[in-house]
Amino acid sequence: MQSANTLVKKILRSSILPFAAQHGMKKDFFPLGRTLSLSLCMKQDNSCGPSEKIDLDGWKKVMKSGLQEVSETVSEHKELSNLAGARDLLEMWRLAGRCVPENITEEQLKAFTECPSKSAQRKYLKYLYLKELYKKNDKRKMIEKKARRLEEQEQDPKLDNTKKNSFIYFQAKSVDKAYNWRVAQSMIFGQSLVFDMSYEKDMSIREVTNTVRQIVLSESVNRRSVDPFHIHFCNLKEDSLYQKEFIKHYRESWSRLLVTATDQCYTEVFPKDKLIYLTADSPKVMKTFDHDKIYIIGSMVDKSIKTGVSLARAKRLGLETAALPLEKYLLWNSGAKNLTLDQMMRILLTLKDTGDWKKALEFVPKRKYISFVNKPVHELKKTLNLINTLKLRKRQEEIRKQFAKSYSKKLTQK
After folding, report:
1. Which domain holds residue 194?
2. DSSP state of 285
3. Which listed site, 49, 171, 259, 411, has its alpha carbon 20 to 30 Å from 13?
4. Is residue 179 situated within a structural domain?
5. Which domain of life is it from (predicted)?
6. Is the pLDDT of residue 194 over 90?
């Protein structure tokens, strides 16, 4: 077999290669690489130049890039057609008398198309409709207020409202300067407080907007306090939903805001042994406020109450956690022990200033607890259980009496 193979190879070399050499072809007629040699000898002229080589890998890259461009254009056309269809659908719903906003942006329209179900779409549209309605009402009230003020000026021209307004404006401006000076001092000498902005994926667009509103409220509360915190927005990515909502709220003053905003994690900015993550799911209860520690608040508002998300994040990073001692000082009524971000800010500021838990926990909504604890908690729970059992017994007796009365009436009727 080997001798036969060698004979075939010799025949090929003796017959094909000289033929190729006569007709102006190179010896790499059967190339090992992925190149295609095209001879120019197919022309009528016998005097042909060197053969041209086409790189197949390069050709494939060019074809793939062309296909990518085509797919991108197709996806863009699809997105545009989807948005146009969504606009037509909303117009039909508006004509049908459904709760649909009159003006809707492209971002809101994209969010509407990305909703997982029809019920979610309806809820989102209702939210936008109510938001637009509140804005219209506010505008109407402002116009009415201006009209009333003009009427009062026409009726009594002696009133010098210009002086009053200028004085109020001057006073407000000076007070704002004083607040800003305090915050500027806290940025150098004050205690740091971190807002963890890494929960965008765990929330819907509506929940993110609510979160940013609460953070804006807490920032204003902090600015007006006697000894404000130095606020850090950590894990705040550029062009994220958080940042877009902040820019919507603050507008031009976002760049001048006296807070530290960074895309870095708090573990990269501060030492780990100084960080304490405040979460309602923590097994450790906070006893006293530590002025040397840096407290972290998770910037998350979830209506579905996803338990353990912030605790899992803190454990993953190897941080110390703590929960507010709500059960120790408050006789809890019902519901989850989650508070809003502005409530947390108020509680921490009062603790920082006074160190009194009772004063601090006055900012907890009164619907969530029955009263402050004066006796030990286990005794109060026993009394509550007794009251509930007595109530149940009374109700059972009333039901028995009602049943006996109705049964006796039926017997007399027969």
Report:
1. 190-326+336-363
2. B
3. 49
4. no
5. Eukaryota
6. yes
